[in-house]
Amino acid sequence: MAKRLDLKDVDIYYGDFHAVQDVNLSVAPRSVTSFIGPSGCGKSTVLRTLNRMHEEIPGARVDGEVLLDGEDIYARSSDAVSVRKTIGMVFQRPNPFPTMSIRDNVVAGLKLAGVRDKKKLDEVCEASLRGANLWKEVSERLDKPGGGLSGGQQQRLCIARAIAVQPDVLLMDEPCSALDPISTLAIEDLIDDLKKDYTIVIVTHNMQQAARVSDQTAFFNLEATGKPGKLVEIDDTATIFSNPKQQATEDYISGRFG
Amino acid sequence: MTERTTEQAPPQGPRDEDPAAGSATLDTVTDPGPARGGRSRGSSSGGRGERVFRGLTSGSGLLVVVAIAAIGLFLLVQAVPSLMANNANFFTSPLFDTRDPANLNFGIRDLVVVTVLSSLFALVLAMPVALGIALFLTHYAPRRVARPFAYVIDLLAAVPSIIYGLWGIAVLAPALLPVATWLQGNLGWFFLFAPGNLPVLTGTIFTGGVVLAVMILPIITAVTREVFAQTPRFHIEAAQALGATRWEVIRMAVLPYGRSGYIAGSMLGLGRALGETIAVLIVIRAATTPSNFSLFDGGYTFASLIASAASEFSQPLPTGAYIAAGLVLFVLTFVVNAIARVIAGGKVNG
């Protein structure tokens, strides 16, 4: 678990549309990398290529290499379903399975992987919920449907579900944008804890959030509508927010555009 | 046109399920919206147009309710005198003899058996097929195949029922004869496949049920497909992101979401099957002895019996007997539809 991620010359297309151009970046194990940038710049698209979720859109394809500890997840021997079993994802909108119990939600990934041992499932369920800071709130009602929790709790349930399979990398696509400030704080604290065990990549619209949670920040931008998005700059978060090398980054973080 | 300054509440559209819209939260607590100025609903506000329009819409709505109540009342009023004059037990007699107005002997036992048996058999055949087609159309077929295929299925609903009747008796019945013979020969010990009250194995409830199954397939498929297609993107992504295969996505996200719609669609189909008239009248042969609760029975359903006797509705008492049968059918379909609505929670517009 907690593997290293390297992107080499990644280009992403939707049919004829060149969505993202020439991305090169590296993510160290047990660190948090955040993707920031204006809407439509391709940061979510890049995130979705990291577990091959973008393939669900017809016509999507990727050139270049996405290496997980040196192994290309787009290699011929690999397939999207098995990639997603080792690279977890948390979405913008909390999406627990509404009819499943809280317990079944957490262990859904394990069941897909073929784990049937009830004792093992219960152990992982508790450990994951503890890991997601949700155990105290739900331990008395594990059999209740996941849809009955508050938005912030649902999002932590989704995080518990994602970490239950002990993923190599955890991707988060604007995980706090549908949450209130208190729930957001809870998730940010959680990200800080999870960093000890997992490699995390997070897309966020909130620059303060990027500054608070991440070790490394990547700024994406696009020159104009219809042009492909580009990785403008990637560096330590402190450097990006205090002393960026590119003028575009400076303009964006200081609020002059975007 | 004096009170033009009253607020115009923004239209509350149906909830946007597009995850790309993003900002929607999961809070189900409804937004109180802009202050409503404390005006109570229906009191003087808006102009004359507002009042006229409200009158028109509520009037139309009321009309439907009144019409249905009137139909029920009509059936009841017409049926009661005949029921009073009936010499047989209405619910348990297998006979339906109204030839002598002075000596009515009619009961609905066999009508219930034939109607329910043929419709349920049709449902059992159509439900799995409809589920398969709906899943194929929404999750397996490429888009350019799914569209025309869906049209073809819908087209099945547009075929007139008389055509189904002719096809059923002329083509399907002989084609099903080997199947029916085999079932009776090998599974005859089971009451559904036991010898029926017909001398032949064509034109039975079995044949009629297969015809009905084809007839109700489109409606079940259409409703189910519609509901499956509405499965929220973010539920599907939840399963995909865990490494679910296509079938696992269907099992984890699509089926739980669409189950109520599927059941509701099936109930609508059942309602249609219960009331189908002309195809059943043509396909299922009349029987001279009471039903054996076998699929190889013949006989009449409520609808086919009434249709077969329609030319002889000249005297009030015999006519009332058929109207009493119609009343039972009316209640039966009403109940089935009500169950469908309750299960669907208002999701279906049949």
Description of the molecule:
The complex is a heterodimer of chains A (258) and B (350). Chain A is α/β, with parallel strands linked by helices. Chain A contains eleven helices and ten strands. Chain A has helices spanning 43-49, 80-86, 102-106, 108-112, 118-131, 135-138, 151-163, 181-194, 207-213, 237-242, 247-253, and strands spanning 5-14, 17-27, 32-36, 60-68, 71-72, 87-90, 169-173, 199-203, 216-222, 229-236. Chain A has a ten-stranded mixed beta sheet, sandwiched between helices. In chain A, 47% of the residues are buried. The model of chain A has no long low-confidence stretch (mean pLDDT 91). With 350 residues, chain B is an all-alpha fold. Chain B has two domains: 2-88, no CATH class; 105-344, MetI-like fold (Orthogonal Bundle), CATH 1.10.3720. Chain B is 63% helix and 1% strand. Chain B is built from ten helices and two strands; from the N terminus they run αββααααααααα. Chain B has helices at 48-85, 109-140, 143-158, 161-187, 205-229, 233-241, 246-275, 278-283, 302-309, 316-344, and strands spanning 96-97, 105-106. Chain B has a two-stranded antiparallel ribbon. In chain B, a hairpin with a 7-residue loop joins strand 1 (96-97) and strand 2 (105-106). Chain B is globular, with a radius of gyration of 26 Å. The interface between A and B is medium-sized, with 35 and 25 residues.
